[in-house]
Amino acid sequence: MQTATFNGVKYEVDICGPLDGLCNSPRGSSSIIRICTDLEKCKGLETAIHESLHACFWAKTEEKVSQTAKDVARFLWRLGFRKV
Known about the structure:
globular; 21% strand; 84 residues; alpha+beta; single chain
């Protein structure tokens, strides 16, 4: 399983499941980020950014995280960032 560290917390990264994505609390016993959308599409990039923002800024509202992830994903997609 892949891992990623955000703000000093190591998360297990699980790429699958029935939701777009999920990031559990960094204060929990296990920190997991799930990304369940196709990473070769813009929605997958947005989901990966969205869940990593939750990991970095747990206290931010869903609305703020969603808008920021959408803006950053659109910007990176236009620059040509893709999963290969």
